[in-house]
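ligand=zinc ion
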Amino acid sequence: MGRLAEITDLERTAMLLAWDQEVCMPRGAAADHGELRATIDRLTHERFVDERVGELLEAASPRDEIEADVVRTARREYDKARRVPGDLVAEITRAAANARAAWLEATEANAFAPFAPFLERNVELRRELSACFPEADHPYDPLLDDFEPGMRTADASAALERLRDGLVPMVAGVAPSDEASLDLQGDASLPEAGQRALVRTVLDALGADDDHWRLDEAAHPFSSGITATDIRITTRYHEHDLESLLSTLHEFGHGLYERQVDPALARTPLGHGASAAWHESQSRLWENMVGRSPGFWRWCMPHAQAALPGYFAERTWQEVQRSVNAVRRTLIRVSADEVTYGLHVIVRFELELALIEGELAVADLPAAWNDRMLAYLGVEVPDDRQGVLQDVHWSEGLFGYFPTYAIGNVIAGQLWTRICDELPDIEERFAAGDFAPLREWLGEHVHRHGRRLMPDELLQEVVGGPLDPGPYLAYLERKLQASAQLMA
Ligand code: ZN
């Protein structure tokens, strides 16, 4: 246990360095900080894959249930890490660094071709990694398992196909005139100082106290639970939209998950959220089910009017709530609305799956991308920058990560159905600025477990069934109907 605590400490230290790099490091220090992180990462890896750890895990006689869970999880990760040769790990890191630089240049030049050989290398190395697990049913399984322990490609594909088949007609049914009339963009009257004040008010109401939370600014908002007592979230301020508020709600959801993990799991490998999709379910739940709800806007409106009178004074909460729920068929995933978002993710999932299977050549990727965007979202992609080059993930060699965004939404839909059953006055609580019932429900049913249960076991425990896109699709359908009624 002592050895695992030490390794956990090293991982947390790496997170602190990563946070520092994104938030407050002087720009000129990037190379030196790179060395600091590389050393910490190497020490962490070496101390973990050491044979002694295997012996200790073999000989461990757990004193309680938590220790038994720690040993089981650590064994699983140890066995997985030991199967991958150190040289391959190093080569993956090196290739990703080169590909990331090539991606930045290609994006600037708005041309996919110069990036293609680097992406090919990343795909090749991921296929080599996958080959370290010959018993897997599918070559994508070991990659997905890094983010969703235990999930198989077949299960992810089945769930996302159902989601896609539900979303495509839903998106196609939104009339273009509706999209334009709900436009919040273009109003250049959301001064940064007012946004900061509003975000602070909202965070206080949600329960992010200064003793354990920090809010900073970052180019790409993220959150870090350094420990359960040190939660750091970031946002960014644009004068033409409300992204600062919705992204704060999103990151609050991630942060709250880490904040409410059982303190008994501190300094163990179990002291985090269960998986990438489970984490995303929490962020999306606070961003969408809370931040885009009528109850939230009934409560928030007077605060928004006080902080940002130029924009909000002339509007009603109904108008604002409708505008934050507008559906737009657009090209860019990170600014996509709640309804189209899933399709942006599914395009990426299907394409990366085909790349790993060897069914799609990298050279054919841009054309395949454009075809699918047209088929699913009905949009023509004008160039690679607004198409296949828009996300950093593939340049960093991240394959298996994209589907967790959509699966997170699916889980959020299942949780929300359960929450509305058990807390029937939840909207009224939001309208009163009382977010404690939701916070406490999530803490009790989801957060406190940390990683003690596998992701599918946790879902079974909380909603009593397997992954099911049905509730999420029904939730979106209800929203679209409500907004269509308001428009009529
Ligand atoms: Zn997130």
